[in-house]
Amino acid sequence: MKKIPFQEDELKILKKRFFFGEELNVLNTPISPLENMKNTLENRPMWQCSINDYSYLYPLCVPDNKAKGNVSDVKLAPEELGGIDMFGIEWEYQADIGGSTVRPGKPLLADANEWKDKIVFPTKETIDRWDWESCKKNSPEVMEGQYFCEPVICTGWFERLISFMDFANASMALIDPEQKDAVNELFDRLSDLYMILIDKFIETFPGHIHRVCLHDDWGHQHGMILSPATVKEMIVPHMKKVTDHLHSKGILAEIHSCGKVEPLIPAMIDAGFSLLENQSILDFDDVVPRYGDKIKVHMPPENVPPEDAPAEAFRQCARNYVEKVIKLGNPVILETFYSSPLTPEFWEELYRYSRIRFLESQL
Between 20 and 30 A from 206 (CA), which of 39, 139, 219, 322? Predict the structure, then answer.
């Protein structure tokens, strides 16, 4: 990549952009945020990228998105979220946590061996009948090609099994010799379904799908829900079927997985993921140097000042972040979900300082 020295006119504001309710300045950058994100994944960022450089796709036409409480193309009130997913499972949206869950106690399956008799999969014809035209019409930013477009499949394999069986039964099914074959067959069928859904996104937004995020939570606040051995045996092969499909089309894969999942990161890499959308509780001082050349994690800034702090405090916070990234030795995605509101001064300094320091340090 050609080394382009920083120029002050790069800080010129070209327009405003709204992302998750936050007004952001679009700057006069030498390359697009999309190109910089691609460079970041090749370990040669021009400036510090963040989730603001994403264009997430959670379209209303995919029933799971409204059910799970994430819709990107239509604004819905909290009371409109939740409902029936594409398997007919009902989810209850909880506004205080910003997400949905299936009310436990009446699972569809008592045993994984029942799945062929009780689960009705949506067919390709069903998926084709969803309102993809409205999805495209209501997602103009995707077609602009300036940001990293990422459809999200918000319920993966273990999470889907939980929705069918409740948590305890799903966890047991992964290690029960009498249920494991059935679980593997179900997961394989899920992989086929997710590939059909991915192909529909590609058909709807030709040339504009850059990666796909697959949700599968494997951890909790203090550790893992599943062991590395169970993940590698029961989930990784089915994930890799999907990531291989993505890679064959020149598309990358990101995994969303909550909790203290550090011991499971090698399995994520084996499954073909280039990025991990994680929580802020990871040990970044260990994870980024150890795995950051193979998988990019989401790292929040530390010690974010209170919203009413002086502008210089936010500028210093941005500089501290850049210096930490350089010290860790591998690029990361700046995550903001777990930070107090970040000011325009933070974002301007993050861009300016990282442009200068990344060039100097050859990160």
Answer: 39
What is the mean pLDDT of the segment spanning 156-183? 98
Nearest to 87 by CA among 212, 186, 202, 201: 186
Q: What Å distances lie between residue 40 and 184, 275, 282, CA to CA?
A: 35, 11, 20
Distances in whole angstroms, Cα of residue 195 to Cα of each of 55, 219, 234, 247, 322:
20, 25, 19, 12, 37
Q: Single out the residue of 52, 93, 68, 99 nearest to residue 337, CA to CA.
A: 52
Domains belonging to the chain, first-starting first, are 8-361 (3.20.20.210)
Say yes or no to pLDDT of 20 above 70. Answer: yes
Q: Report yes or no: 1 and 39 within 8 Å, Cβ to Cβ.
A: yes
Contacts of 265 (CB under 8 A, 6+ apart): 276, 287, 291, 295
Q: How many CB atoms lie within 10 A of CB 79?
A: 8
**Element housing 117 (H / E):** helix 115-118
Q: Report strand pairing: 13-19 vs 148-153.
A: unpaired
CA-based radius of gyration for the chain: 21
Main-chain phi, psi angles of 225, to 5 degrees: -85, -40
pTM of the model: 0.95
Let me know if 309 is exposed, middle or buried by CB neighbors in 10 A (0-12, 13-18, 19+): middle
Give residue-wise pLDDT tens across range 189-247: 999 999 999 999 999 999 999 999 999 999 999 999 999 999 999 999 999 999 999 99
Q: What angle do CA 54, 58, 63 make, to 5 degrees?
A: 170
Which strand ranges, in their side-by-side order, compose the sheet holding 148-153?
54-57, 148-153, 211-215, 252-256, 275-277, 296-299, 333-334
Dihedral of the alpha carbons of 328, 331, 337, 343, in degrees to the nearest 10: 90
Give the SS3 label for residue 254.
Answer: strand
